[in-house]
Design goal:
This protein has 285 residues and is α/β, with parallel strands linked by helices. It has a single domain, classed as 3-Layer(aba) Sandwich (Rossmann fold), CATH 3.40.50. It has 9 helices and 9 strands. α2 packs across α5, α5 packs parallel to α8 and α6 packs across α9. The radius of gyration is 18 Å and the shape is globular. Bound molecules: 8-iodo-guanine (8IG).
Length: 285
């Protein structure tokens, strides 16, 4: 028992190097999958579960908790497994995270970005971050996928430690967005605003996000994208708008209250369609 604890250093311990824990997790991924490295990583947010299946053949599945530094998933509708998936009929491999740790869980920023750091240590060069979120554009009906062109991080937190000055110009790769537009020319782009959550925004907060230049509101993604850029990964961010932001009325209608159940349902309804689109995009990387 005490031996196990000693072998798995806590990410929370200030004396722990989070990149060393990520390397240990990547080494375990190599053991569990039988391949030394992966090429792409995909983090599946609310509503994106089928994207992993549509990508190609699953060659290995394991629990996130089988890897050093990960703790159990906390939210209903988020599954705690990682899969190694063959990309189409290529030799390239994707590491598919069926869940993420959210900042609002209070486990600290290191836990939030541990999957991204593990992917980077596993050799991944391209990261796809997906999420379910609220939309500010009233024409974005539930189930609309939107490419993230930029973000505003309102959490007040950062995954970077010490004087690590990372350039975030073009954080969300224009090259990868162009591939997406090639697959689906109707795809809209938006600026993602991360709130801490877990409460949804007030209508005034949603209006604030709009005044600041945001068009998507959510509780994930920005801290992971920052950690990815620090690690030198190319990032694609894609949101599934599962609800209008609080206080936003649909065309000709009135604003509705938000519920987690409705969010999950809207995600399920759109999942196959947007998952297929994303799988095609990843095959074209
Ligand atoms: I799904 O409207 C989903 N996640 N912050 N606001 C925030 N997060 C979300 C929302 C939303 N919908």
């Amino acid at each position: 028992m005490t031996d196990d604890v000693a072998q798995t250093p806590s990410l929370d311990d200030p004396g722990t190097d989070p990149k060393a824990v990520a390397q240990a997790a990547a080494d375990r991924v190599a053991e569990l999958t039988g391949v030394a490295s992966h090429d792409v990583a995909l983090v599946l947010g609310s509503g994106w579960a089928p994207a992993g299946d549509l990508l190609g053949e699953t060659l290995a599945t394991f629990a996130t908790t089988d890897l050093p530094g990960f703790s159990a998933a906390a939210v209903a509708g988020h599954s705690g497994t990682i899969r190694s998936v063959r990309i189409g009929d290529t030799e390239r491999r994707a590491l598919v995270f069926g869940t993420r740790t959210h900042y609002y869980e209070g486990r600290g920023v290191r836990a939030v970005v541990h999957g991204v750091r593990t992917a980077a240590a596993a050799g991944v060069r391209t990261l796809v971050l997906t999420n379910g979120c609220g939309g500010l554009d009233p024409t974005w009906t539930p189930g609309t996928p939107v490419l993230i062109s930029d973000h505003i991080n309102l959490t007040g937190a950062s995954p970077l430690e010490g004087a690590t000055f990372v350039d975030l110009t073009d954080l969300y790769s224009a090259r990868l967005r162009a591939i997406c537009h090639g697959v689906d020319p109707t795809l809209a782009e938006g600026v993602y605003v991360q709130f801490r959550g877990p409460q949804y925004e007030t209508p005034a907060e949603v209006r604030m996000a709009g005044i600041l230049g945001g068009t998507l509101v959510g509780m994930s993604t920005t801290l992971e994208a920052i950690a990815a850029r620090e690690a030198g990964l190319e990032v694609l961010g894609i949101s599934l708008v599962t609800n209008l932001g609080a206080g936003i009325a649909p065309p000709g209608g009135v604003a509705q209250p938000l519920s987690h159940e409705e969010v999950i349902a809207a995600g399920k309804a759109a999942a196959e369609r947007v998952g297929g689109m994303l799988a095609e995009v990843i095959r074209q990387f």
